Here is the input.
Amino acid sequence: MAAPQRLGLLYEGKAKQIYATTDDDLVWMHFKDDATAFNGVKKASIRDKGEVNAAISAHLLRRVEDAGIPTHLVEVVGPRDQLCHRLEIIPVEVVVRNIAAGSICRRLGLEEGTALSRPLIEFFYKSDELNDPLINDDHALMFGWAEAWELAYLRHAALRVNATLCEFWDGLDVTLVDFKLEFGRALGKGQTGRILLADEITPDGSRLWEKNTLRKLDKDVFRRDLGDLGDTYRDLFARIFGEAFHADSEA
Ligand code: TMP
Ligand code: ASP
Here is the structure.
């Protein structure tokens, strides 16, 4: 069967665009070079970011799939383009933390780098207007954002993804500090109701520290002006794929 063709733009996010396709059950995800932080307050275009993130996300989503967690990724169709199952996004962002960093340090007065005795799962309500507030299961249930079985699955899947990613990054001498996942309910024929891991798994939505040096290899480099984000991401690409990054596409 011929690959579906890209149609009109359905949605534009901070780092990606989603297009309709000639197949009603599939969408076309395009990774942009745009970087934002603090809910869009800080912005820049980082050469190659879209392409590096697309490659990393496809690689990691496939590993997660191999570990038994179904994802939205159907096919890589270009250096920064992926065909994905069409979903209704569950508006509950799932953060998994292995080490304290970022917002949990501010909220609970922890020092960055404090080890957590087991992976901690936090839920945030996905709302740019409200700045993605922290919520608990009760909020999600009462406001109808997710059902109880869905929240149970989100926790189970997030821990499985964490175990898979920790092992992956560990093998590259990188510590997985924390990361954010999004899930959706599949809308396609024969898929209805299935929950799929959605969005992306990239250094934009993860904290990654080089083991011995504790050097940051993720978007905190941009958030906190710690260096050149493009260089950091290209280095990460080389570490993962064992070859230097060469751009294949324009943004
Ligand atoms: P936080 O410490 O700011 O709560 O972030 C936890 C993790 O989630 C971190 O790896 C970055 C990621 N994240 C996103 O992917 N998108 C967001 O909007 C935020 C706030 C965090
Ligand atoms: N993803 C959010 C933004 O783009 C927040 C962040 O990553 O710091 O602004």
In short: The mean pLDDT is 97.
